[in-house]
Specification:
This protein has helices at residues 3-18, 26-35, 47-72, 77-81, 86-111, 120-136, 142-154, 159-190, 199-219, 226-233, 237-265, 267-294, 301-312, 326-338, 345-361, 364-384. By secondary structure, the chain is mainly alpha-helical.
Length: 408
């Protein structure tokens, strides 16, 4: 056979190698597992889904802002909204900037330039778009998790490292949340901090948060190579594949939790992330405190902190997009139950809704803009990336190389 025939044969083999595997085969299943997480989330690009979400948000907002005051007897709440002191509103807005800056610091501290080379602008796009997705899609921040994970994969971070770093991000963020519930709940109940201290709003949340902390400390003991151990112990192909899939979840949780613990212990490595996590919640509480001050409400700091974190638990309600409505009602109800002397229901209503307007709604429009900017950034990464695609776990080097420090 001539040289031309050899070249033709080589090109045919190359086409066969690059062609997608037949559907239903083992190769197709493996390919789908490897590349499925690289599909772009359609949060803001899917018009139907966006319209459905916005309609649901409008219905919930109308119910909370206009029906709830009548139901709970705070009809003066809407009227009170227009009487906020401008100085404290400006303070709250400035604290919202600090809130987002802390969120970016947490993200960069966990991801780190040594793991994947992201510029400050790229970090801004990922975090702000993720924050907007967190606000509008799914409960407990699930929308933001999906979008951030996708962006990290497109940036060149390997799948397991991306998943582990996302777990570390969330563990650090919510470890501060749980510790605050324990500390402020106990200190309020025993009288170290001034203010009302109902058992159900102090010790009960503190106990629940303590149990969650213990659970994650136990999760950290799970070996990171659990998937390999189960795979080696299993002899049957199908059962071994199922076992490996099941093992990836606790193994990833364990690796991410241990990474978060290492960040907390080693301030030279995780100081930025730790400051970001603390700063994010502190800025949120500061916005709520300034909102109360805007309407002349003087609530003890311990009550503001505990009421904030207890009310935010309503964010876990699954049917409310991003906790819309649920958190508003939960936080208003929490402060009403604290029954701080001299603080009326109308004042609580106005302060909480002002907080939500500044901390929740204000970042959404720039977040949607950041999402479309991020899409252009990802397209640029795709054009610039040499070698195999991100889904192949080979030469995953966009926009910078993954170093040995990326091994969690």
């Amino acid at each position: 056979m001539g040289a031309e025939g050899v070249n033709d044969s080589g090109r045919e083999r190359e086409r066969d190698r690059q062609a997608p595997p037949p559907p239903g085969t083992e190769e197709a299943r493996v390919s789908e597992e490897e590349n499925g997480d690289d599909v772009e989330p359609s949060f803001f690009a899917d018009p139907k889904r966006l319209v459905q979400t916005l309609l649901a948000v409008v219905v919930i907002v109308v119910a909370i802002y206009f029906l709830l005051p009548t139901v709970v007897g705070v009809e003066d709440g809407i009227a009170t909204l227009g009487r906020g002191e401008p100085f404290w509103i400006v303070v709250a807005i400035l604290l919202s900037v600090a809130m987002f800056g802390s969120y970016v610091a947490l993200f960069r501290g966990v991801v780190g330039e040594s793991v994947v080379d992201l510029s400050l602008r790229e970090s801004y796009q990922i975090t702000l778009a993720g924050l907007a997705a967190t606000r509008l899609f799914s409960a407990g921040g699930a929308g933001g998790i999906v979008l951030t994970y996708w962006a990290l994969r497109k940036a060149g971070m390997p799948r397991k490292v991306s998943a582990a770093r996302m777990v570390a991000f969330l563990v650090l963020l919510y470890a501060v949340y749980m510790l605050a519930l324990v500390i402020f709940g106990v200190l309020l109940r025993v009288g170290v901090l001034p203010g009302p201290a109902p058992f159900g709003l102090t010790l009960i949340p503190a106990i629940v948060a303590g149990v969650v902390i213990v659970i994650f400390l136990l999760i950290a003991l799970i070996p990171g190579d659990l998937e390999r151990r189960i795979s080696g112990a299993s002899q049957e192909r199908r059962s071994g594949r199922v076992a490996r899939r099941l093992a990836t979840v606790p193994a990833t949780l364990a690796i991410g939790t241990r990474t978060a613990i290492e960040f907390a212990r080693d301030h030279s490595r995780g100081g930025l992330a730790l400051l970001g996590a603390i700063g994010f919640w502190a800025a949120n509480i500061g916005i709520l405190w300034a909102s109360f001050k805007a309407f002349g409400a003087d609530i003890p700091l311990g009550v503001v902190v505990q009421g904030f974190f207890v009310g935010m638990l309503a964010n876990l309600i699954p049917f409310a997009p991003g906790g819309v409505g649920a958190v508003d009602a939960g936080m208003i109800g929490t402060f009403v139950l604290f029954d701080v002397p001299g603080i009326t229901g109308g004042t609580i209503f106005a302060a909480v809704l002002t907080y939500r307007l500044i901390a929740f709604w204000l970042p959404i429009p720039p977040g949607i803009v950041a999402f479309f900017q991020l899409r252009r950034t990802v397209a640029r990464w795709e054009r610039e990336r040499p070698g195999p695609g991100v889904g192949s776990d080979i030469a995953e080097s966009l926009p910078g190389s993954i170093t040995s420090e990326s091994k969690v």
